[in-house]
Amino acid sequence: MSPTSETAQGGRRLVIVESPAKAKTIKGYLGPGYVVEASVGHIRDLPNGAAEVPDQYTGEVRRLGVDVEHDFQPVYVVNADKKSQVRKLKELLADSDELFLATDEDREGEAIAWHLQQVLKPKVPVRRMVFHEITKDAIRAAVANPRELNQRLVDAQETRRILDRLYGYEVSPVLWKKVMRGLSAGRVQSVATRLVVERERERIAFRSAEYWDLTGVFATGRAGDTSDPGTFGARLSAVDGRRVAQGRDFTSTGQLKGGAQVLHLDEAGARGLAAGLAGAAFTVRSVESKPYRRSPYAPFRTTTLQQEASRKLGFGAKATMQVAQKLYENGFITYMRTDSTTLSETAVAAARAQVTQLYGADYLPDKPRTYAGKVKNAQEAHEAIRPSGDRFRTPAETRLTGDQFRLYELIWKRTVASQMKDAVGNSVTVKIGGRASDGRDAEFSASGKTITFHGFMKAYVEGADDPNAELDDRERRLPQVAEGDRLAAEEITADGHATKPPARYTEASLVKELEEREIGRPSTYASIIGTILDRGYVFKKGTALVPSFLSFAVVNLLEKHFGRLVDYDFTARMEDDLDRIARGEAQAVPWLKRFYFGESTTVPGGGATAPGAGSDAAAAGNGDGDHLGGLKDLVTDLGAIDAREISSFPVGDGIVLRVGRYGPYVERPTEAEGETGQRADVPDDLPPDELTVEYAEELLAKPSGDFELGTDPETGRKIVAKDGRYGPYVTEVLPEDTPKTGKNAVKPRTASLFKSMSLDTVTLADALRLMSLPRVVGADAEGVEITAQNGRYGPYLKKGTDSRSLEGEEQLFTITLDEALAIYAQPKQRGRAAAKPPLKELGTDPVSERPVVVKDGRFGPYVTDGETNATLRRDDDVETITPERGFELLAEKRAKGPAKKTAKKTAAKKTTTAKKTAAKKTTTAKKTAAKKTTAAKKTAAKKTATAAKAATKPTAQAD
Fold first, then answer.
1. Which of 113, 201, 332, 510 could form a disulfide with 101 if both were Cys (CB 3.0 to 4.6 A apart)?
2. Is the distance from CB of 524 to CB of 170 less than 8 angstroms?
3. Measured between alpha carbons, how far is 482 from 222 in angstroms, rounded to an integer?
4. pLDDT per position as a tens digit, 579-622
């Protein structure tokens, strides 16, 4: 049966998808007998708090939303913001003869479809409609070939959801008690945070090593050209048969590896050797040539798309998925959450056709290329991410713009290139030798690469995480030389180098690391990275992910007391277990019991589990080799956790970094018992590897954020200066018995420092002047008072409701009444004031090709290209923000699209009754009732309540 108006004449079919955008696209492909509506994501989930749990549940069930004593039965509730949508779906279903559940074909989509079926309780036939691209043919084929709900996928998603709820709701409160309120722990997010923290630990422990070598420029004596250069560079590789040390020959602590076989040149040795080689004769000792071949990259799956979009387009993982979601919903690409690299026969044929059309038959291999999936436990229900349809639209044909165009072009190029021939060529290594004046033998080495047939590289070349890495299509041509040829050294220079600490993760490299360690599901990585950024565990410095000091405390606690929960191998094995459950090879309830209660623990109301490893919480969650000792015991016995210890980190020279409830600070303990040591706040955005002993001493030497300036001679109150959330300010300290709340509450006088002032230099006199504001300047001819005030947007004059800006802060104290009256005599400036100069220029945006600058706006600094504005995040700084970070913020803002305008509630209320009446079949009596209520609808709905009930058929209400 194909979905046409003819086949739909026998009744009405309701098709439910997740998003309104998807619904709009699909609706255009189906006949008038089909109603397409969105569930707007999940309509039902575990409760967010005890207030959402139905009254019949008490105790632990109310806290967790899961009945751990009765086979981990979940308590599902309809989300508060989805009740109106559920009501709408029920009304549409009441008038339908068939229900098609058309959610995504993965675990999450299957679960949404199951929840819809459970909540809507349809009495009509239910079909599961699946597709991986939104094209006319694909949608019609999906309607014509429905299947049943896959209960195994539903159970797998439910097990993961219960596991994540137990993990989060049991471990997070431990963080609240021992570290800080409002923190969260998660099965994958905590492990991802640990990865970022461990990399920073490596950077802190790293000690740089200096090493030197030589670079020579050698000439063949022939006039060179592009195919046969006359000169080429080579680097010193060995001296007297000993290999010259390079960066890879040093440990992270700066120690040389390799012993006597490796020569560590220092500056003096390198310069001495360079001088000894001046005028030396050099000959070619060997020429080694090997064939070069590079095969195309596999089509994109979710993680490789995120990585490449980060490298080539500067997109974060979240922005990539937002743009990809729009491309999918509008029918441009196939489903974007996939672990598969396979292409359907239709897609292969489309790609091969474009290869021939765009590049010629010489670039088309004899047989189609196939790519085997390398992802363990991959969901192979989908294809790779590719352009949709049986004929690929070129980027120009799509008429897309901005970020959607750029991401589509990336996907299109990669897909077409995957069906092209290999790139082939030659790689050459040349060894050159010479003898120094002191008799030492020096050997230089040069490598080159030539590509004789570019193959797939004509369409696409993959990027690299290392900005200094050489891309695959880069050629390095060496001259045509043979063994024994004489060469002249035009220049030999000594070069100094220093080893570098391991690079911090970027979003792309963290995604790659999580996938290689088989931690979590690739489809969730974007949201995981978003979570650790939003929670403040990680912040961005350029594109690098930097852990906060807070994350050090959290990871420290988890490692010491919940070791298995953040163990990489254990987390990967847990993922294997969940996939075995999904395949029906293991049962969910016994597995959850073992995870939560352990193996030798008696389960309340459920008997004893099999004997095995003990449940002693002191074992720090280590259990046996494959499992925990029992999560419940671990979170119950918290006596071994010393909150101060897990949040303290030695800096050196007796200075300790501590993570307090209000942020990180350094402390030099005092020897006097019972006294607090010297303390200083640490900037929230300071990378941990930059907190050296010297910097800590500098912080401790600065005036604290709360220090006394003196006493106000008029009130006798202490005046202090502080560094607050919105900048430095001065305030008075009120007596302890001063009421702070209620009708008689007294607020302390407070004033922000002028821009020209600082906490280091502000005096008591300055503070008293600042707190004397606002100052009465005088009154105009009509007796209206004029005051000078310092506001959020700078200094200004105020007369009644008329405000005028002042040019400088000092004018607040110096402006006279005549000067103020002169300002008010001028016509008030309407519209915007003159534009402020930009705070920083970042260069040209690669998407809009417009100049990007940082500006100071009403709500703080922001980046703009003149079309799109994006506010700087908490961790971004005007001084240090990079062009790449600016472009990324703009890309994320574009991906979100314009803010949606919401209709006024009053207008909606007026039309609700009319819409419901029009949608239903009416009898003669109903028509009469409707006429009677027409006039009443224009006034109050209450007047027609009785008539409406009599005239309208009752509708199903949301659960």
1. 113
2. no
3. 14
4. 888 888 888 999 999 999 986 544 444 443 333 333 333 333 33
Q: DSSP for 550-581, please give it.
A: HHHHHHHHHHHHSGGGG-HHHHHHHHHHHHHH
Closest C-alpha to 285, from 433, 72, 105: 433
77 band by pLDDT with thresholds 50, 70 and 90: very high
Least confident of 295-304, 834-843, 866-875: 834-843
**Residue in 755, 654, 739 with CA at minimum distance from that of residue 700:** 654
**With the CA atoms of 681, 683, 687 and 689 taken in that order, what torsion angle do they form, in degrees rounded to the nearest 10?**
-30
- Catalytic machinery residues: 335
- The full DSSP string for 257-322 is PSGGGEE---HHHHHHHHHHTTT--EEEEEEEEEEEEEPPPPPB-HHHHHHHHHHHH---HHHHHH
pLDDT at residue 830 in the model? 56
**Residues 46, 826: Cα–Cα separation, whole Å:** 63
539 in helix, strand or coil? strand
Q: What angle do CA 215, 220, 223 make, to 5 degrees?
A: 120
Cα 328 to the center of its chain, rounded Å: 20
Contact present, 622 and 564 (Cβ < 8 Å): yes
The secondary structure of residue 181, as a DSSP letter, is T
Report which of 803, 806, 802, 750 is spatially closest to residue 773, judged by C-alpha positions.
750
Which of 416-430, 483-497, 940-954 comes out lowest in average pLDDT? 940-954
Contact 152, 579 (CB under 8 A): no
* Mean pLDDT along residues 664-675: 78
Class of residue 301 by CB neighbours under 10 A (exposed 0-12, middle 13-18, buried 19+): buried
Q: Look up the pTM and report it.
A: 0.72
CA distance 585 to 604: 27
Tokens (6 digits) for 812: 């607040």
Q: How far apart are CA 647 and CA 557, in angstroms?
A: 8
Q: Stretch 794-799: mean pLDDT, rounded?
A: 88
How would you classify the pairing of strands 13-17 and 34-38? parallel
Instruction: For residue 410, count other CB atoms closer than 10 A to its CB.
Output: 22
Pairing of strands 77-78, 262-263: unpaired
Closest among 472, 331, 461, 347 to 408, alpha carbons compared: 331
Split at pLDDT 50, 70, 90, the class of 423 is very high
Rg of the chain, C-alpha, whole Å? 35
pLDDT for res 786: 94
Residue with the bigger pLDDT between 871 and 744: it is 871
- DSSP of 164-175, one letter per residue? HHHHHHHHHHHH
The edge-to-edge listing of strands for the beta sheet with 648-652 is 648-652, 655-660, 663-668, 678-681
Asked if pLDDT for residue 323 goes beyond 70, the answer is yes
Three-state DSSP at 895 gives helix
Token output for 33: 């007998």
Give the DSSP letter string of 319-372: HHHHHHHHHHHTTSB--S--------HHHHHHHHHHHHHHH-GGGS-SS-----
| DSSP 8-state symbol, 455 | G
Query: Measured between alpha carbons, how far is 82 from 86 in angstroms, rounded to an integer?
Result: 6
Q: Are strands 869-871 and 544-547 parallel, antiparallel or unpaired?
A: unpaired
pLDDT tens, 196-232? 999 999 999 999 999 999 999 999 988 877 778 899 9
Q: Is residue 6's pLDDT more than 70?
A: no
> What gap in Å lies between CA 157 and CA 138, rounded to an integer?
26
**pLDDT above 80 for 117:** yes
